[in-house]
Write a structure and sequence with these properties.
CATH architecture of the largest domain: Orthogonal Bundle
Strand content: 15-25%
CATH class of the largest domain: Mainly Alpha
Helix content: 40-55%
Number of helices: 10
Largest sheet: 5 strands, antiparallel
Distance between the termini: 71 Å
Number of domains: 3
Length: 302
């Protein structure tokens, strides 16, 4: 006889079935409470919410310049504390046993937490990001193996907002950011750029290096320390590839720096009469008797 497997239900369905203990709720709330009592409690709670908002804004203003991310976190936690205190005071003032009342809602609260586990996960991840601070507002970051690259605009308790260099705005869940690799391009104040340059196989590499390196000093965005370097990196199909390494300020326009490096390298090679080759392919054709071989070189422009 086969066993019957349980049907998985949505968390909100569980919440509807696992509700609060109504007997405990009735015991926690005294008899004889009038509408005026509940209105009084509501006014106290509303006042607590207003005070919480004011406290949050004051904390944000006082800490925003020194620690923007921390200011937001501290402000919201302070607002939560003030609101909780106001809620407890309002219910206690009209005779409600708050401890028993909260305990009666405990089982339903667990189901509610399960139903909103994604929201809670992002909230906890947001708190961790603001405490650990792997990056700050305005930093250039790369998240998730080049999937998201841009400038951090905001880090709140549930998400990270990034403006890409293509003009798009991306809102990432904090949990997704925390789970992926984070590359902070601006953490150390400078960044190294590597630009490949190909020269013909007839070229002596030292001549190409001697031609390019002095021209890199003319680029204002390139740092003098560490100095720019040009090194051999590979022997490719159609060219000997050199790599130009330069350091620039972390907040410089990396695309413009790359443009300037390529511009100066091309000008240096042209002045030195060094050829930048096109891709080449050599095809060999054998005659019918196999005695003669004719080689044909075809150049394919990019």
């Amino acid at each position: 006889m086969g066993t019957r497997r349980g049907v998985r239900r949505h968390p909100l369905q569980l919440l509807a079935q696992i509700g609060p203990d109504t007997d405990a709720v009735e015991e926690a709330v005294p008899d004889g409470l009038k509408a005026a009592d509940w209105i009084q409690a509501g006014v106290v709670i509303a006042a607590a919410v207003v005070v919480a908002l004011v406290v949050s804004r004051l904390i944000n203003r006082s800490l925003d310049r020194r620690a923007p991310g921390t200011a937001t976190l501290v402000g919201r936690l302070a607002a939560l504390v003030v609101t909780t205190v106001g809620f407890v005071y309002a219910l206690s003032n009209i005779g409600v046993e708050v401890g028993l009342f909260v305990g009666a809602l405990g089982v339903g609260g667990i189901a509610l937490a399960f139903a909103f586990q994604d929201i809670l996960e992002n909230f906890i991840a947001g708190v961790i990001l603001q405490v650990k601070r792997p990056f700050h507002r305005g930093a250039y970051v790369e998240i998730g193996e080049s999937q998201h690259f841009g400038v951090v605009q905001e880090v709140d308790s549930r998400s990270v907002i990034i403006d890409t260099f293509g003009g798009d705005r991306i809102v990432l869940p904090a949990a997704e950011v925390l789970k992926n690799a984070i590359v902070n391009w601006t953490a150390r104040g400078r960044h190294r750029l590597a630009v490949p340059v190909g020269v013909h196989y007839r070229t002596t590499p030292s001549d190409a290096i001697a031609a390019i390196e002095p021209r890199l000093d003319a680029i204002d965005e390139v740092l003098a320390d560490p100095p720019p370097r040009v090194l051999l990196s590979s022997l490719d199909d159609s060219a000997v590839t050199l790599t130009v390494y330069v350091w620039h300020h972390a907040f410089a326009d990396v695309f413009f720096v790359q443009h300037r490096v390529i511009e100066e390298a091309k000008a240096a090679l042209d002045e030195a009469g060094i050829e930048i080759p096109f891709p080449q392919r050599v095809l060999s054709f054998a005659s019918d008797d196999g005695a003669n071989v004719v080689s044909v070189a075809e150049r394919h422009h990019r």
